[in-house]
Amino acid sequence: MYSGNEGRAILSEAILEVKSLRTVFKDKKSEKTIVDGIDFEIGPNEVVALVGESGCGKSMTSLSIMQLLPRMGVIAEGEVRFRGHNLVGMKKREMTRIRGRKIAMIFQEPMTSLNPVLTIGLQVTEAITRHLGVSHKEAAEIADDWLRRVGFPEPARIRKEYPHRLSGGMRQRVMLAMAMACKPELLIADEPTTALDVTIQAQVLDLIRGLIKETDMSVLFITHDLGVVAEMANRVIVMYAGQIVENTDVITLFTNPQHPYTKGLLGSTPRMNGTMDRLNPIPGTVPSAGSFPFGCRFADRCLVAQAGCRSQMPELRSVGKDHQVRCLLV
Ligand SMILES: Nc1ncnc2c1ncn2[C@@H]1O[C@H](COP(=O)(O)OP(=O)(O)OP(=O)(O)O)[C@@H](O)[C@H]1O
């Protein structure tokens, strides 16, 4: 009998370790580095936010973790260890067992994962029977339980619907039910609320926050929105042009940001503290993969860059307890 939120043993070691990960886009003529040697860990129950503007490499990082890169994408170097097992190069069958069951992912647009011609009930129960190996009857019970928990008081009605009949917020809640029903140890949420309007966005964020509290799962939360980071994360990793430029806990990020890019992101984010400061957007755009400038990749947009910044690539260095920054000037 399914008993809802059964406890899982909490381990002290990292759930996910990404080590020197380099992901490239390759065709016959060229090779472009998209994710360039990134290292980070996610601990038990930790919510890590991966932030940066569009095109920084956040999604390609998450797809590298899930081994779901598009056809031209290849992991050229590095390891992605999930509970100690390297997922890079893992057999497809083994990876399929981990994906969905141990690591679940929700996307910005749930329609990319939902099949438009199958009812919600069929899709949710199919995922549960496939990953948990339970009977159809048991899967239906689990599905109903989770549909209720994500805010559908009458799950039987939702089960009969087709995805296109639901609003964006409802579809995202269905995706959450589907992801959570298999009790993943790691949830990767890639801009899960970006496509929703603000009130629905707040409801879905509340829901995800509640689920994080209730369960033992760790979360990698991908967003370009620092407001969302402040609400959701324990730790923040700031990415720029395929590299990590700052990695620290959420309090330090907001009170003592060090990298000029992080400061720029904060300066371009509205605050609700009553002050009427002008927003200062960062000038320019993220360089695209394949045309990263020499030296510091942010130098062309950086207000404090000096000549030396363009002649050598800064290393990601420790600048305090649990705080790393990639900037020559820090
Ligand atoms: N299918 C593709 N073919 C070639 N280049 C790609 C492809 N998808 C992404 N890229 C490039 O990879 C780099 C990183 O893209 P990625 O989607 O990971 O960024 P992101 O930070 O997640 O941005 P967004 O929030 O817009 O998804 C960008 O330079 C982008 O142009």
Verbal overview:
Strands 6-7-8-3-9-10-12-11 form an eight-stranded mixed sheet, sandwiched between helices. It is of the alpha/beta class. The longest helix is centred in the middle third of the chain and has 17 residues, at 198-214. The protein folds into two domains: 16-102 and 187-325, 3-Layer(aba) Sandwich (Rossmann fold), CATH 3.40.50; 110-183, no CATH class. Mean pLDDT is 90; it is low at 1-11. It has helices at residues 58-66, 92-98, 120-132, 136-149, 155-159, 168-181, 198-214, 226-232, 250-255, 260-267, and strands at residues 16-26, 31-42, 47-51, 73-82, 85-86, 103-106, 186-190, 218-223, 235-240, 243-249, 317-320, 323-325. The chain is built from ten helices and twelve strands. Residues 25, 34, 52, 54-60, 70, 224, 288-289 line the site of adenosine-5'-triphosphate. Belongs to the ABC transporter superfamily.
